[in-house]
Amino acid sequence: MNDKTIPVVIVGAGPTGLTAAALLGQYGVECLVLDRWESIYPRPRAVHLDDEVYRILGRLGLGGQFAAISWRCLGLRLLDREMRVLAEFQRDAADGRHGFPQASMFDQPELEAILRAGLKRHETVTVRGATEVTALTQDGGAVRVGFADPVTGRPDSVLARYVLGCDGANSLARACIGTGVKDLGFAQRWLVVDVAATADIGQWEGVHQVCDPHRAATFMRVGETRYRWEFRLAPGETADQYADPARLHPLIRPWTKDIPAGELEVIRAAEYTFRAQIADRWRDRRVFLLGDAAHLTPPFIGQGMGTGMRDAMNLAWKLAGVLGGGLPERMLDSYQAERKPHALASIRLAKLTGALMTQGGEAGNLLRRLAAPRLHRVPGLREQVLDSQTPALRRSDLVVRRPWRRSLAGRLCPNVVLPDGRRFDDVTAGRFAIVTLAELSADQRDGVRRRGAVLLTAAPGTGLHRWLRAGRADAAIVRPDGAVLRAGRDLAGLCAALPAFGAARFRP
Ligand SMILES: Cc1cc2nc3c(=O)[nH]c(=O)nc-3n(C[C@H](O)[C@H](O)[C@H](O)COP(=O)(O)OP(=O)(O)OC[C@H]3O[C@@H](n4cnc5c(N)ncnc54)[C@H](O)[C@@H]3O)c2cc1C
Fold it and tell me: What is the per-residue pLDDT for 503?
């Protein structure tokens, strides 16, 4: 037993826990990450992330490494059961508003390897594998984290000021805080097949969505030699039946065509039940839930892992600010207020996408065949389908907006290139920023400097200038996670509303 209180203990070294650790490490916050496995969980699951999530990797200094293991996704193609193209939505080749491709494909264990290796540069972060967390007990100013060696069973514990439960779908942290979980009414069994191919299978490099209630399927290239298929299982079917290559290959044949089976190595064919659920409470005093511990989504829009990484991005700077003494403790309540509605919106969109692909029987098929080829004529639909922008954060102590009024508040400030050639995130470097069209007075400039924030005056013709004008604002306070705290025309009010942050330092 060790009775030194560690500022943050993170339960779970999946993508959510590793991201939270890296972000806290950037602020020099001491944290201990505990995971039951010695090393990376090897089964590939997530294969897609959007540019908002890529931006988090960029913020961690991992953008270049991720570029080397990821594959730009060209868009979305809807197909019928005979593999006829019903509709196609092509993405622009240019990077999106965050400075990265709007959709990237990758292999989750490779991403986790990059995240883990990146932690080595933060001397305040320790990762300890082969450690099964068994209990969280809150007592006044600390949480006792009980754990055991999974092999010897030897028990031990540490004290933490805050605990982040990033321990996945069967979260112990969630059980310990005693929250209910709302089932959002979705359960489908799917066969997930990962294949390595020595030959290029020569398919269009976007997501292929087969819209068929009898055998809905998704196909995408995820890397240089890697391909992913997902097939909805019929009642009574199991993944075991597809362990036999003679049964599996006919499923993927419409894409692999005449490539000999010997050139296609099936890495795994496993069954998953895709679910939709969300925890009622994401915080109990000093324990927080993040990632799959807080929410589960069917993967039809590829957002489960991204939602967890957004949770980490939302909470890490707030914790750093509270631990540094600048932000009041109550600001931590904004975590659930902002993140839960955002996660719920993403789950609802994933469920809707699943329903459009799979429901309605033969009538649904007919409707899709009739409607899909005309979709490109619907004004703005292409942009809607391909736009990676997620909804604005809801109101909280750290998102100030009037109900029902259009505002930049809660939206992400774009990661634009500034006149000196650097990107917005590189200049703001984990601090608050005031972005303004007008010059500030000397007093106002002094106030911004005293609070450790960055001042960016947007000249006409620049990306920030266009962004503020489009949002009908003269200025905005941008938080360390890139979300807008408040925007408007009242420059004096905005300067006065800039919070003191207090995080000790930031190391990119
Ligand atoms: C088939 C499939 C396809 C998917 N595709 C996508 C996609 O394209 N895009 C996307 O964004 N998401 C996708 N997802 C979802 C994504 O994989 C998950 O959302 C993501 O892995 C969740 O990350 P996490 O860190 O929250 O949890 P996990 O990855 O589950 O990590 C939790 C960690 O906690 C550890 N742990 C648990 N309990 C304890 C304990 N008591 N003590 C110590 N350690 C513990 C575990 O060992 C594990 O390492 C997909 C999922 C599936 C199944």
Answer: 67
